[in-house]
Amino acid sequence: MNILHSAVFVTLVFACANFPVTYGKLVSIQDDVLRALLVMNRSCDTGASSSHYAFYAYLSHDLPEPGGNRHFIYDTVKTNIGNAYNNITGTFTVPRNGIYSFTWSTRVECSKAHTTELVLNTRVLGSTYIWCGYNTVTGHVVTYASQGEAVFVRTHSSHGKGAIKSNNSGRSAFSGFLIA
Length: 180
Prior knowledge:
5-stranded antiparallel beta sheet
């Protein structure tokens, strides 16, 4: 048995407990390691599904004077693993209970201002404010969400002034993913 096999095997022994080992033949060490990995995978399972959920979408066009409480519909989808983001409604529907990370970016036209909010159902989780010329602001929220809840971005009720910009020079975008 070489040192690498021994190190891997010893690491596996201490990582998670109680798996059968067939002592003896040098050849069986690989089988032992594979069996240990399978048992560890089962015994260390946190109960979480192996499903992955992630999305990234952006506005394909500017929104001139969007008004207050305007729900953004990020219509250009670049990533939608798990298909939980809907580019018709602009809503991410939480596919399963867990901890999620959400990020949104908003770009405004010159000398204008806007406040945007990240909303979970009806509860505002985060907000951003931007004022000035052709700048972008980004908000980030990590939160626990339950299956079936809706997450989206909107303008604040006291709407801002000017257009929300989104073009090749800078995108207004929305993204998120399941952490655990």
